[in-house]
Amino acid sequence: MSIGSLLNYFYTGLNSSNLLISIIFIIIYAILISIMMSIFAYMFGWIERKIIAKAQRRHGPNRVGKWGLLQNLADLIKLITKEKIIPENADPLLLNLAPILLVGIVTFIILLVPFSSYLQATNLGLGLLIIFVILGFTPILLFIAGYASGGKFAELGAQRSVLMLISYEIPMIIVVATVGIAAGSYNLSSIMNMQSSLFNVFLMPIGFFIFFVVMLAELERPPFDLREADSELIAGWLTDISAPYYAVALMLDYTRMFMGSLLIAILFFGGWTGPWLPGIFWLIIKAVIISLFIILIRLAAVRMRIDKILKTGWMYLLPLSIVNLLLTLIIVLK
Amino acid sequence: MLSIERKDLLKNIEQSYAEGYTYLVKITAVDYVKTINLIYILRSLDKNQDKILEVILDPADLSVETITHIYQGADWYEREMQEMFGIKIKGRRAKRLLLEKWDGKGYPLRKNFEWGKSYEKE
Amino acid sequence: MAITRINIGPVHPSTHGVARLVVDLDGDTIVNVEPHIGYLHRGVEKLVENRMYMQSPPYMEKIDYVAPMAVDELYVATVEKALNVEVSEKAAYARIILLELQRIASHLFFIGSVTNDLGQSFTGFMWGFMDRDKILKLLENATGQRMFYVNMRLGGINREFPQDFEYQTKEFLDYLEKRLKDYENFIEKNPIFIQRMKGIGVLNIDDAINLGVTGHVLRASGVKYDVRKNNTYYKYSELNFHTKILSDGDNLSRFRIRMMEIRESIRLIRDSFYKIQKADGSMIGMPVKLFSPKPTNKISIVNRELPRGEGLMYMVADDKKPYRLSIRAPTFINLAALNKIAKGHKLADLFSIFGTLDMVMADVDR
Known about the structure:
The complex is a heterotrimer. By secondary structure, chain A is mostly helical. Helix content of chain A is 72%, strand content 0%. Chain A has one domain (84-333). Chain A has helices spanning 3-14, 19-55, 71-81, 92-112, 127-135, 137-148, 152-183, 188-194, 200-203, 205-218, 230-233, 243-268, 279-300, 306-333. Chain A is globular, with a radius of gyration of 20 Å. In chain B, strands 1-4-3-2 form a 4-stranded mixed sheet. Chain B contains 2 helices and 6 strands. Chain B has a single domain (2-90), classed as 2-Layer Sandwich (Beta Polymerase, domain 2). In chain B, 34% of the residues are buried. Chain C is of the alpha+beta class. Chain C has helices spanning 44-48, 57-61, 68-83, 89-117, 123-143, 165-188, 191-197, 205-211, 215-220, 227-230, 251-276, 330-336, 338-342, 347-356, 361-365, and strands at 4-8, 20-26, 29-36, 152-153, 156-157, 299-306, 309-317, 322-328. In chain C, strand 4 (152-153) and strand 5 (156-157) form a beta hairpin. The radius of gyration of chain C is 20 Å and the shape is globular. Chain C has one domain (43-365): Orthogonal Bundle (Cytochrome-c3 Hydrogenase, chain B), CATH 1.10.645. Chain C has a 3-stranded antiparallel sheet. The chains are: A mainly alpha, B alpha/beta, C alpha+beta. At the B-C interface, strand 2 and helix 2 of B face helix 8, strand 6, strand 7, strand 8 and helix 12 of C.
């Protein structure tokens, strides 16, 4: 059986009219996606450590396994076997649920992403909007986790996450709407197909810039890692999360980065469009390159301060996103 | 080095400040057993000159005026002297201990200080 | 709005040791900071009273563990003054070379820790520490120890410079000059770095003098005071260097002063290597003996420009031991100014201010 027919078989299964078969295939698909996500998160955990080590003229992990490939696995095992500590005045359920729910959100979003015209769970007409509605829950979850831990550092991190939410969510939604208008649809597949002649980066460079900055903030990557600013708040909302949940939270960092890179690739770099290779490869290659770029930013960036982020959000990003909307309207409508 | 009476301390410091000795380098003390000398090292940044004032105190009465209203930087030095030598600084509230993290018994830099002996701090 | 009181430390990623700061916050704005110090208080001043004169240098080195040799030298110079020991010309230049290398090492440590406090994922930190490590290797070659040298002897240092020391040092200085350009491009000119540092933690000139802050904090506020110039010692008066001042008094000025001082130190070392060739006398001081010469000066006051600011020792001499040694630690008084500087800023800035004041808690507590 060739890969093409396998995919075709899979596709018919996913879109089967029989509800039971459809659910079974969706579960298989979800498992496959989770495995892919884990591999990505694991590999990027290693790649980030290596790249940063090289830039800082260190060696990075090089003891466990070939080139230190198994170092992260060793760290994971260490974390999982450690004792769970829950602070006295914390809400244990909410505190430990938050990282797991976050994993759920990220997995759900990646499930909605079409990897090729065969490999997709559903083909929703409003897929893009649904993704951003779900994405809007993340800061709220972080906020809940921060408050549930009962510590003051976590609480400060939670406050910051809400402050950041109000400053970057609006420009992000405006840019997403602009992409939708340019494509004439909120369907992810048609957005990607629309870009086969011209990537959105070239159509709306301002929009790309805004979205990229906002995504860094959304993913808590430097220079916007205020919620878990290690030199100020120890670890922000993660301060009181211990052992296995902390391992989940660490893996989550990279899965979220993968998700963000996928979204950027889909919205601005044409997603699966590209010559020679099948669509799924193009999408993943693009996402990996964007992830590498995000890692490189971490090397040089100094953490921004909360009031500067608010100022950037409201004074620059919001007006720019409106300018971007108007320019795109002019170009698209002629 | 200029030896001054305790009652003239504030007057002397104020006068020095007016003369341009605006920078306080250090307040320190030496326990000569019979007397405890409190030493103020002042500096004039314009004239590039140091001035040392020495106040000779009787161990029975160690109270002096504070100079924090003239030199803000004197605050921690005065507290240090308060803890280490038991010099009582008039006109300031007793604050928590600055350097010592033990029970605060005795004055460690005095010559009659011994470990293990029980002291009471006024 | 309600005021939150948070307790930072004693163990916290950016308190540079064991400082505890009790911070009152209004939202994210600092209302009041109270530093609680003394967690590293060892009572060095008392310990010294029970040791012979030349038994104390190892204790002195632990006062400021980032620049141990500088404090050691200050102590030995105080003893030299009390015992009336002359330092030969050659030994003076040798000390200048070692002390300036130590100063550069300490300043590189500062650059590293400040970038780390600002949240730069250890890049600047690693850079600073790796270049510092090269200096530690040089000093190890010259003195025999990597961090705690104990190489100051009465009237000189413990041994002659090795043959290759001059060549290695000059090679390192060339390398460092190239690296400083990297630091400048990567850190000092980084827009977010400037945004985080400029106008933050401003200390104006009047407050700086009144609070008695020293070293780079004083010079960043516009006071031209450097002990090496104003109360010159050894052969600093014959060497060519400038006291750099800036007038803003903010975090960025404090950082830039340090960068400039590294360049001045490089000049000083090059100059000293040139002048040491024609200098007279021996580099080696008296061996450490149980019975040192009798003190001739009862009270000796010595001040030195330590990497962190002005250090001063007030020693009352006894026959064999110091009767009383009082140490003015530069960071002690700089930390006392923290509340004044940090008030009204955001919590995130507290750490950059704390970092640019360049705290070494062991030095604060003694």
